[in-house]
Specification:
By secondary structure, this protein is mainly alpha-helical. The chain has 8 helices and no strands. The longest helix is centred in the C-terminal third of the chain and has 24 residues, at 150-173. The radius of gyration is 18 Å and the shape is globular. The N and C termini lie far apart (49 Å).
Length: 174
Amino acid sequence: MTAETDEDALLVEASRAGDHTAFGALYQRYSRMVHAVVLARVPPAEADDLVQEVFMTAIRQLHALRDAAAFRGWLAAIARNSANGWRRGALELVELTERAAAPRQEDEAEARRVLNTIRALPDAYRETLVMRLVEGMTGPEIALRSGLTADSVRVNLHRGMRLLREALEEGGRR
């Protein structure tokens, strides 16, 4: 176990005992990771609300977590399940306005195109890329928060960026 995992276990136990500050520390530690996992699967407009839902589910179900040191992986699984559940039950509605031709809208459209391209990549690359490109997390931060080794993060980022570039280039040729 790492020092961070040990600290997570202590925070989980304190949270179970009703210490809201401890759960707040877990939220601070993992909210960006959860946001990346969710954003890899749902539209940006839905991500913040879904992140809150994930943490609400976590605090309600904390008693069911058998190994307090497994909090990170358990939380990521809740995030994936919540986002996948949202996708099954939701349609993405896009409002068209007169401002659609504005440069800012074009930038947003391009960002949506890139995010949608990332979402089409395999899970390992998708989550790692969103943590890096959207959340701005460094490789070591991603490793720490996701539970992956630093080498795995490096490989996922390298392969994911290659696949993303290829997909974006191919989409641009169409």
